[in-house]
Here is the input.
Amino acid sequence: MAKAPRFETLTAEMPLGEAARTIVRGLLEAVLEETPRVLRGDDVEAVHDARVAIRRLRTALETFRKPLGSGPGPFERAVRRLGRRLGGVRDADVHLAALRGTLGGATVDEAPGIVSLLESIAAERRRALAAFAVEMSQFNRDGFFAALDGAVEGSRAAKPLAQHVHHTLRKQLGRVRKCGDRVIERGSGAELHALRVALKRLRYGIEFFRSILPDDGASAALTLLAKAQERLGTISDDDAFSAHYATLLASLDGSDARRAGIEARRTTVAHQREHELAGLRALWENGGEAPYPKRLRASVRAALDALV
Here is the structure.
């Protein structure tokens, strides 16, 4: 798993603009550090770590959009494009790992479909990696840093970082609860995606400011966030797999030898999704202790109250 960055030079009294520069610059450097390993082509962990680094950078740019102004705007869009390109590589890696695990237990009838999926997704991965390489070659690192420095110098964000942390984490916490309640009621793909995004933003926010937050509250919140994210990540993967299988099946005639394997995978993924969704609901409603939203709110507020 990608190691969360620690910004030890941050202080609660630091002007917000300076804190934004420290965090955003450090996160971009983390992306650039991972890139050579990704471009070597076959390092699955490097792809994962780089994708997480890009997501953290995107979240930081969104978090500091108001104090930094419009200067870094074009680079925010460039980072979003990088994330989309690398996301295609990571999605392929996850799908390939699941299929390889399935192939050993496939029946004679199912094997042709699994093999065909492995071949087609491996080809998709190569195309996605090539697209990421092109996007990365066009990324203006020096221009990004210059725009960031200019935005900080021209910013009026002199309020202390602690004030921004209070506002941001409380807002992100509220978003998690709102999205989570919708998931418990309906559990549709759109609500699940919204909750996953909200959880990640809160998690990354706590990570950014970890060095000025008391460890007990921050650690408890991060542990809770990881539990829900794990469930949601599996559900998201299953939804992507199901959509892929449905599209592929629609293109095959009824006698195609690949159908049996693809249909078997589709059934397995549907059962797995229901299992994970049930686990998420159980976590949200109780989890063996107080309801999840109450525990998460208590841990975040404990960290923020100690920051005053």
Q: What stands out?
A: The chain is about 80% helix and 0% strand. Residues 32 and 224 are 30 Å apart (CA to CA).
